[in-house]
Every structure is written in C-alpha cells, then in structure tokens.
Amino acid sequence: MGISFAGTRLHRIFVERNKYVEQEYHNYIQVNSKDGRRRRAMEWLFLMRVNMAYFLLNRRSKTPVINGKGQTRSIEKLPYLEGAESGLYKRKKEIHFANDLMQYDVISFDIFDTLILRPFAKPADLFMVVGNKLKIIDFMRIRMEAEKAARDEAMVLKGNHEVTINDIYEKVSRKTGIDVQKGVETELETEMEFCFANPYMKRVFDLLKDQGKKIILTSDMYIPAGQMERLLKSCGYEGYRGLYVSCDHECNKRSGGLYQTILHESGGQVKIVHVGDNYAVDVTSASKNGFDTRYYKNCHDIGNPYRADNMSELVGSFYAGIVNTHLHNGSRQYSPYYEYGYIYGGLYVTGFCNWIHKKAKEENVDKILFLSRDGDIYQKVFNELYGDIPNEYVYWSRIANIKYTIENQREDFLLRIIRHNSTAVIPRTYGDVLTSISLQKLIPYLKEASMDRDTLFTIEKVKAFEKFLLGHWEMIEQIYNEETLELKKIMEKILSGCKTIAVVDVGWGGTGPLGIKYLIEEKWQSDCRVKCYLAASRDVNHVKNLNELMNNEIEAYMFSQLENRQLYSFHANTNKGLNNIFFELFTQARHPSFGGICKDGKYEFDIPEVENYEMIREIHQGIMEFARDYYGRTDQSRYLRNISGTDAYAAFCMIIKDLKFVKTFFKDFTYARSISGNISKQKIEKISEIINKVHA
Question: Can you give the pLDDT at residue 495?
C-alpha cells in the first residue's frame, strides 16, 4: 500500500471518503514509517480499524484514534500525560533539515501551516474576526458557504474548482451587501494581522537562501500571487524565485496540475523537492508527480487532540492555535513545568489580569495591591501587559491576616490556629504552636495551666488549650496590636493619595483582601475605599462569604457560589477536594511565606521551600510567555482579550481530568496545607503524600 495505492478506487473508498480517516491514516504512516520502510499489513489493519470507528460505529469525535507515538488511545480527550508535550513529535534540528535539502536544485515550500502559521485551531475560524470587523453576524457561515458556491460555479463554468478571493466576495456581497473590495481588503488585512512566520521553517528558509538555493513557494489557495506577496513580506519572507498559487494557474497540488506546471517551467531536468504539512497533497500527490518530498507535520494535527474542550469557539480556537504553534513548530522543546504554566495556567492568568484591569478602570481604582504569594505572577503579567495603573506587591498571608484582625476574627483564630494544629501532619508541641504564631511570650504561663512547652498538642487537648488562650486574650491582642501599628505605618505609605484601591488574591474565601479592607476602612478609619478581587471563590462552608459576594464586597473572576456555579461545584467535588492545590501551583512564589512584622518594622518569613523554586520559575516563565504571545497577537483585535472565566478555567480543567501528570512531575513539590507559621517545616507535605493520603 505505497504510492501506487493513492489515486485508486480502494484509496477513495477507504481513505478519501472521510477527511478524519484520511488524516489519521497519513499520521499513522508518518509516525510508523522508519527510514522509508512501510509495514503494509499493519497499515491495512489500522485503516480497517479507523474505518470501523467512523462508519460502522458511527463515531463523531474528531479526536484521533492514535496518539503521537502511533499507539491506540481512547476517544475521550485528555491532556498529554507522558511528559513535555513539545517532545511528543520529534523534528530534525533546523540546520539538519536545511542540510538535507541542499542536494536539490529547486526547493518548493508550501505556504500555510508550513512557512506561515495562524494562531487558530482551524483556518476558517479567522473568518469570525473578519465578521467582527465587517459588523456582519454569522459571517463565518456566510463566508464558508460563499466559497463553496464560488467553487461549485467555477467547476461548472471552467471545469475546475479554482477561485480567487474576489470571486468569493462577489458571493458574500450578494448575501450581505458588503462592498467586494472592502471585504477582500478586510480579510487580507486580518490574515496579515494574525499570520506569522513559522520560526522553525523561517530558519530553514533563511539557511537555504543564504546558500543561494533556488526556492519557490507553492500553495493551493484563493489569494492571488500579488496579494500573497504582501502577506509573505509581512511575515518576513523575501528572496524566493517563484510563487505558484492554484487560483492563478487554474490547477492545484491535490490534482497534480500545479506540480506539473512547476516541472514544465523548470525545464524538467532538475532535482526538485517539495516541503509541506498536508500528507495527501504535499507528499502523496507531489510524489506521484515526480517530486521528492519532505513532510512537515501540521502543528494543529499534533496539538489539537490535547486541547481543552468546552471553550467558546473563538477564544478556544485562538488559545489552541497559540499553544499548538508554540509547542509543535519544532524550534524548541520545553520542560513539563514550563508547559504546565503555558498550556494550563497562561490563559487563566492572562484573562484574570485583563478582568482586573477592566474592573479597576470601571471602578476608578487608584492603585492595585497584589497580595503575596499568589500575587507575584499576577503582578508580573499585569505589568507586562499594562502600564496605566499603579500597583504594589504586598506581603500578606493567612496567618498575618488572622493576627492583625484578631479582634474581629476570634472564632477564625481558634478554628484555624488551635483546632487545625491539633491534627497537624506531624504532631507539634505547645511551644511549637505558640512560637509559630508569635506568642512565645505566653510559654512561661503554660505551667500555670498544668501544661508543658514540650508536650505534644493533640486533638484531645483542644478545649484545655483554647481555655488557656482565652484566659490570656488581652495579652494576645496587645502582642498583635504592636505589630499592627508597624503594619499601619507601611500601609499609610502605600495608600498615600489613594481614594480607591483594589486588593487581588487567588481566592478562596477572600479572607485576605477582606482582612485588609477591614483594617483600612474600619480599624484605621481611612478615607480610602477597598475593592476585593479574587480569581475564584470557593469554601467548604458555602455560606461563609455569601453576604460579601452578594453585596459586591468580593468579586470573583472564574466562579463563586453565585456565578458559574457548575464550575464551583466541579472544582469542589472532583479529585477529592484537592483542586485548590493543583490550581495554586500556578501562583506560588520563589520566596517564603510572610509571617508578620516585628516591632522595628522588619518582615518575618517562614522557612523557604527552596526545593520548589526551580519548578516555580519554569511555571512562571510559561505563563509569562503565553501572556506575551496572546497579547502580542491581539493588538488590533483587542476584544479577544476578554477571556471569560469559563474559558480560563477550561484549560486547567483539562489537566486535572487525569492526575497522572501532577503525580509524576509534582510529586516532590512541597505544599503547606495548615495555616500557622512554618518555623520547623512540620506542616510541610509533598504533593504525592497529600494525594496518597486522600486517595488511600
């Protein structure tokens, strides 16, 4: 079943009848052919299996039956779980690919998805943006139907399906009344807005051009050569010797006519090779017409099976297109940690920062405070993308929040500090607990209550220890109030000249931002008003912050008890309630948790989890580069930056469908689930230990 199989009746029946069958068949050949050798019997078995899936079993999924390694996979979409997705399809180094082409007199390159990439999962999705510019509802359908009608008419009138973009917009104009030339120019401008040079192929192209090789470009496309040259130039491609576009020559690569035209114009006595991404058109058809070929597998064919489902069509396509073209063009390979940030956290942080910016503008916010440690990456991305709202990174933590709002948080203090410590991962002594919350001054008073600093604090002793603390409550408040005075001095400098600020945190009950709001507005009676922005709101006690959400004291981007309730329930009820941990992997920071402020105004920190820092650095690098890529490609169509909370969460939802990736690559990542200060690492667990305990 080699080249001779193509073009036969059997090929039309078993391969060409369904485009997904054809794609999977050619993908299988590419993955399983080694050094040009083909196992024909295995190919036939695979082809029968795929046909059965699509025809006999009436399969509708577009997810490939095989994965990047040629192995059978389930129909359900899952993330790539084996490691770095960018490494699942190996390409030669650019210099080796170029060196292999040096033997030829003429090198022909396909254009779209080979030399030029689009940040859309499917090419036609670009028409949604064109429709927005033309202010025509449902334009993508109109545009696609117009192209089909134009091609059908061309077949009747000329005997081939070749049309120009002007022919297509003649049909669009009849349906919409839009001026033909305006439509054509709008689409071409949109192509130039989004299309960019494939970094891998641009390097190959430049290496060949520098060696004086004859390069021609060949495309089955409705954009005539004159207009195509504009697009190519905008992507940095110049110096090629010929440009062959199907609509100019009334024949195409699929039928072989365009290849025959090239051979005729080349004189026939040349050694020629064609490079392209469509196996049927750029390999099979080119080979049948006397060309040597080199297959460059389409980035979207590699990446689309692993992209998130259930996203809105435009943002989902744009997100998938950016990820696919970044990971799979072949110019670089990344680490699993970088990809965790780029693929699964980048859209969320980018969308959240855009939401923060819009809210802050609408609410006339003078300054934004990003709370540590989750605010570290938020602030970095925010400042990368925006420069018009002052902001500061403010050290804060759960323990600091409880200490400095203690007069308003007695129950929370007792619950989180005392009861949670009684069931700590590793039992702690009375002395450890008091020291961890800056109450070492109370240690000498333990003996009066028949307690010893070295005695382990367990759940059976909660009531006695609680009674001890309540008996010394005035002393506790005095200790913390001394620190609060130092905090006030720092905050007064931060708030200078501000009438309205916004406090940003990841979630979940909003106690951090609400604590700062309480201090500024009530305890210190400042004229400054405080807005509280969360990435998401979720608490085991569903009514805990319901009032604050309903009266807009807290506003959440992704979900809360009031909005996107289905996401709220999914986040809370899947993976044994551990999703907060996996979500917060995006927003850790490379510094220890904030413990509080000393009398002299110096900050206290817990022990740093240095074992996490390299992983965090790579995750943040991935998030930052995704944000740059997304924003860099939406400079003219800025409405694409309005990423809904549902879309933002969908990417994260994809990676937690199967915890194999997290278990494999984050098993040694240390995480603190309790709230008191980490003075001795007694509350630190590895993520693998947490998962094993919960799933035991």
Answer: 96
Query: Does residue 3 carry a pLDDT above 60?
Result: no
The closest alpha carbon to 282, from 205, 208, 218, belongs to 218
The angle, 0 to 180 degrees and rounded to 10, between the axes of the packed helices 645-655 and 313-328 is 50
- Residue 269 CA to residue 613 CA, distance in Å, equals 60
The residue type found at 186 is: T
DSSP state of 446: T
Looking at residue 164, its amino acid is T
The residue written with tokens 């000498």 in the block is 444
CA distances to 142, 166, 179 from 185, rounded to whole Å, are 17, 10, 10
| Spatial distance between the Cα atoms of 492 and 469, rounded to a whole number of angstroms | 31
List all residues 6 or more positions away from 246 whose beta carbon is below 8 Å from its beta carbon. 162, 219, 220, 221, 252, 253, 258
Question: And the tokens for 364?
Answer: 């006339």
- DSSP conformation letters of 110-178: ETBTTTEE-SSSSGGGHHHHHHHHHT-TTHHHHHHHHHHHHHHHHHHHHSS----HHHHHHHHHHHH--
Residues recorded for the chain: 696
The sign one gets for the Cα dihedral 296, 300, 305, 306 is: positive
Q: What is the pLDDT of residue 409?
A: 81
Given this model, what pLDDT does residue 680 score? Answer: 45
* Total-model pTM: 0.87
Which of 137-146, 589-598, 648-657 is predicted with the least confidence, judged by mean pLDDT?
A: 589-598
> What average pLDDT does range 277-285 have in this prediction?
96
368, 389 Cβ separation under 8 angstroms: yes
Backbone angles phi, psi at 553, to 5 degrees: -70, -30
* 359 contacts: CB under 8 Å, gap ≥ 6: 365, 502, 531, 533, 555
Measured CA to CA, the distance from residue 266 to residue 597 in angstroms comes to 78
Q: 403: Cβ–Cβ under 8 A, 6 or more apart, which residues?
A: 437, 438, 480, 483, 484, 596
Name the nearest CA neighbour of 295 among 308, 309, 310, 280.
Answer: 280
* pLDDT tens sequence across 246-274: 999 999 999 999 999 999 998 878 999 99
What is the per-residue pLDDT across 434-455, written as a single tens digit (0 to 9) for each?
Answer: 988 889 999 999 999 999 999 9
Q: Are 438 and 417 in contact (CB under 8 A)?
A: no
Task: Give the per-residue pLDDT at 539.
Answer: 85
Burial of 9 (0-12, 13-18, 19+ CB in 10 A): exposed
In 3D space, the residue among 174, 172, 175 whose CA is nearest the CA of residue 130 turns out to be 172
How far does the chain reach from its first CA to its final CA, in angstroms? 51
Assign 219 to helix, strand or coil: strand
In angstroms, rounded to a whole number, what is the distance separating the alpha carbons of residues 326 and 347? 14
Query: What is the sign of the dihedral through the CA atoms of 584, 651, 315 and 301?
Result: positive
Q: 């110049």: which residue's tokens?
A: 238
Cα atoms in the 13 Å half-sphere on the side-chain side of 60: 0
Rg of the chain (C-alpha set): 31
Amino acid at 622: G
